[in-house]
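Hallway conversation turned thread

IA: we were arguing at lunch whether anyone had actually written out N-acetylmuramoyl-L-alanine amidase end to end. Turns out nobody had. So, for the record, here is the sequence (248 residues) and right after it the structure tokens. Reply here if something looks off.
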Amino acid sequence: MNKTISSESTDTEVSIKQEPLADGELLKKTDNVKKPLICIEAGHQEKANLELEPTAPGSKIMKEKVRGGTQGVQTKKAEYQLNLEVAMMLENALAEDFDVVMVRRTNDVDISNSERAMICNDAEADLMIRLHADGNENSQVKGMTFIYPSPENEYTKPVAEKSKDILEVVAQDIISETGAKSRGIIPRGDLTGFNWLKVPSILIEMGFMTNKEEDVLLSNAEYQRRIVAGIKKGLINYDFINNMNSGQ
């Protein structure tokens, strides 16, 4: 059932209970239960870095380290700001049931796409969640797109199947919580942030900031909470604990 949220509110205040931690630092737990480890990456950063880096380990194909993201046509908010707002909210929501590593907690960073992947690799994360927003020359285009590492790419093939399995569950629950239009689940083999990964990953394009209605909605705190609620519900429904124990 679709859920309606007024797009008139642009309240973006996010309540974060945890004290700020250094980038990549694990949220500490008080119990001894092994929890799934989620690495959260808020896409882009305040200043793009157009220096080049290999798109994959050993590749001669080069790509900008971090491109500039899109911008809200109505709110004028930068994508990197929106991505971090949702990422911080997601960190807070997951902290009770999952261990969490954040790729960044501020916008004033310089972390390339390969480095973002390696932060999650080094943490030995069970999943990397990449948060982005879309843009399009056609202002009528709207909806969420869900992306996973391609099974056809030599670099991403090892993590493709599990990434897709997780994403299918998460995408369904996000759409259920938000009522957003789904533009589908799509494999990509051309993304540096996927090619350097050794762990499963999903990328959520939360909506189009070039669509006036969706742009305002994406900055609505209640809508952001519903995106986060959908992600968490999907992760729980995937049942990481049993899947890890069964070797899936």
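OS: looked through it. Residues 157-178 form the longest helix (22 residues).
IA: good, adding that to the notes. Confidence is low (pLDDT under 50) at residues 1-30.
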